[in-house]
Each structure stands twice: as C-alpha cells, then as structure tokens.
Fold this sequence. Notes:
Layout: E1 2-4, H1 9-12, E2 20-23, E3 29-30, E4 33-36, E5 40-44, E6 52-56, E7 66-68, E8 79-80, H2 81-102, H3 109-127, H4 134-168, E9 175-179, H5 187-196, E10 199-202, H6 206-209, H7 219-230, E11 234-237, E12 241-242, H8 261-276, E13 283-288, H9 300-317, E14 322-328, H10 344-353, E15 360-366, E16 369-370, H11 379-390, E17 395-401, E18 417-418, H12 429-444, E19 449-454, H13 481-488
Parallel strand pairs: 1-8, 9-10, 9-19, 10-11, 11-13, 12-13, 13-14, 14-15, 15-17, 17-19
Antiparallel strand pairs: 1-5, 2-3, 2-6, 4-5, 6-7, 16-18
Helix pairs in contact: 2-3, 2-4, 3-4, 8-9, 11-12, 12-13
Amino acid sequence: MRFSLHPPISSLLTSGSVQAYLSGVDGRIFPTKVAVSDSEITFQRPMSDSCKLNICWPVAGRGTPVLATTSLRERDQPYDLVLELARGKLSEVRDSSAAWEQAGMVIPEAFGRVQREAFELLARACTASNDDPNVAVWATQSIEKSCYAASLVMDAYTIQRLTNIRRTHHQSPGLLGGVVDLTVLTPVGSKIFQQAFNTASIPVDWKSIEPTEGTYCWDPIDQLVNHCSEQRNVLRGGPLIDLSPNGLPQWLAPWANDFQNLPSFVCDYIETAVNRYQGRIRLWEVSSYGNTGGALGLGEDYCLALVARTLEAATRTDNEGQFFIRIESPWGEYQRHGQHRLSPFQFVDALVRSNLGLSGVTLDINVGYGPDACFTREMLSISKLIDVWSMLQVQIHVNIACPSSSQSDPLATGSFKVENSVWKQNWSEDAQAEWVEQVVPVLLAKPSVTGVFLSHFNDAVSHRYPHAGLINAEGRTKPMLEPLRRQLHNDLS
C-alpha cells in the first residue's frame, strides 16, 4: 500500500518514527513493514486484501491520535495519505453519530454544523487537481473539524448516558478503584484514597509472596485486605499470575519447558491465594498479559493453555467468585510486529467459548508511553473499542494510566518511557487530570463496563507506568483527585 506525502510532514517522517499498521475490515491487524522515502510512504503485509491504514498523525491541538483510512484496495497509483485520513475520520464520525441517533440519542446542533464544514473541506480537496498545493491544507482542516465534531458528539453521548444511568440508579454506575500499596494504610493515604475511590485493587503478586519455593509472605496483603475491608471498600485481588517478561518467580525458570509440572505449580498458588481470602475478596484478576506473554519464554499457545488452567483452578476453589483476566494493548498494536497469531479479542474469545467460568476481562488502556504501549486514541476510538469487546457479553473492567510528568521515573519497573506531544499538551499534572476527566466518564457510560481502576496509587512505591499515580513521589496529591472525586459522587459538572 503506497501513499504520497506532502511537505512539511514528508520531511518529518522516518521509517523508525512512524507508528502505524494495516488492518482488515474485520479488525485483524496484519504484520506491517514501513518504508519512507522523500515523498512517499509504503506499507507491506503478507496478503493483498483490502485494508485500512491506522497511523498516529499530528492534529493541531490534539497531539498525535490514531487516524484510520476507509477500506482501500491495493493499486499501482499511490493514495494521497492526508486526503484518505480526512475521508476515514469523517466516515468514522458520521457512522457513530448515525448509530447513536438511531438508538435515540439527541445529537447536538453544533455537531451537524461542524461535520458539514468538515465535509465541505474534504469535497474541496477531493475535487482539486493533484498538483494543487491547497489539497493538503483543506484535507488537514477537514481532519481538525472532524476531530472537533467527534469530541462534540462524544461529550453529548457521555452526558446523556450517565444522566440516564443516574436517573434510574441511586449510586455510581460502576466501580471506581485504584491499585493500592502500603501507603494507603497511613491516615493521610487512607483519607485520599477514600475521597477518590470506592474499590481497592489489591496486588497479590506471586513474585513478592513466594520469592523462594515454599516460602510465603502474606503479611502485607493481609494488612491491605484488613484495612480496606474496615473502610468498606469493594475488594479486587490480583493479578495472581503475571505472564509478562520477568512476571513469574525466578525459581520457576527450570520448569519452563515442563508442560506438566509448571501448570501444577501455578494452579497450587492460585488455589492457595483464592482459598486464603475466600469470602473477603470476590473479584479476582486471575492472570495478566497472557495475550502478549514473554514470561519464561513461553509461547502463545502455551500461555493460552496456562491461562485456561488458572481459570479452572480459581473457579474450582471458589465457585462464588468473579474471575477476570487482564489484557495488554487491547487494540492489538503489538500484532504489527508479526510475533503473535491471535488478536487480543480472539485470545479472550477462546476462553469464553471454553466455558471455564470467565466472568470478565480487564483492558489495560494507557496513553503517553512508548515504545510498546497503546497508541494515543481519542475518546471516540476508546468508545468504539469498548463496543467491540462488549460483543463477548462479559463484564469489562478498565485499568487506566497516563503520566503527570515527562521526567525519568526511577521507581518505574516496566520498559515504558514517557512520550510528549502525543496528547493535547506536554505531560504535566494538569494534562493528566484533563485526560482522566475525559476518559473515566466515557468508560462508565458504557453498560458493559462495571469498573474503572487507576493503575497505581502512589508514585513513591515501585510501579509499572511512570508518574501515573494519584500521589506524586514527594507525597503531594495530584490535580486528578478532583475529577475522580466528582465522578465518585455522581457530579456531572
């Protein structure tokens, strides 16, 4: 698939800087290779079906969100990239608004005016001659108008949905929680946590609990369970098994290729943990990152089989519990590297079809990180993602993370680095609060979403995502406390 580029963007792109992939009409992502020349960008994949290009693209005032073309066929003549992105964005916005209007949503008048302006700009660009320098200008302006229209209709959808939910319910539409650590046991930490959340996600990390075979350390987990129970928080435990690189205890390494004994060790731990807190913790994340894998060099099929075994063990131990699995990169961007056969959706669908007692799925949504984190998405794209996962007809929890600073974070244990210029402004505590204020209501407005969780509570404790906590490393509360507090207390202001 070949696309022509216009200056000045053509001088800014290199093969290594382009974040993009090709996807089929059904959403599957093809292994994608990118090559950039002076005035053209080429994408290669193993097949020649019609496809969509998805690419992180600069939009004035909105960072570099993912934009997608409509479905395109292969041809010898290159497509005009910015023109096709304008066509794709307007098509996405119109399709979503039409579906919501048909479902009874009131579409704001401003949306109709802005999307008509976007269409007029697109029509002007499409009918101009190929060598007209204004083509890129008009197409770019059309993209900006379409993004603005998307935000208008997304805001209207969210407000109308939450208003309807709160008119018929006497409490928040879903759980609002955070992953806790021992700092929540202090009077100050406890007070801040209770202001923002009604649910405590307690990390039951196997590496910390059983650092050597047969030696358990449950005291920190017991303290958190006791404290959060006293505060009358809903409790969620896990993930019990972390299948990301270095996620499992090192003493398991000699058993990595033992397909009989390794699952036995894993299931023994699952049964021990679930049985210990049976009746106190009813929500469990049984496993995490099975779709991307990396632990002990296990293959994709083995990870899927291991996740299935963990679900069996958990449901067998507590038949009244609710069991979730966590999915990394729920859009599936990692598939562009060609190292995974199953999409995230297919991975979970296989478990649902196996009837193993899976209650729901936790989607890990983050913004502002690289190199292998989620691409930046607008709220409409996040809404469409939840709609896709809702087809599984299981509960959806969402873990969210974004940075409050672009500085290095010495306590971040993952491979993620903060990336600036991908959101509306460079990352700061105010930018973090703005993103949280937008994304949490969008998620809780979805009927299938029963919980939204902040990835960690305090930046002064080791964590996966840099600067994503509610409290910074100096112990000061960040501005995102206020939107979380408002959401917790059903305040739509």
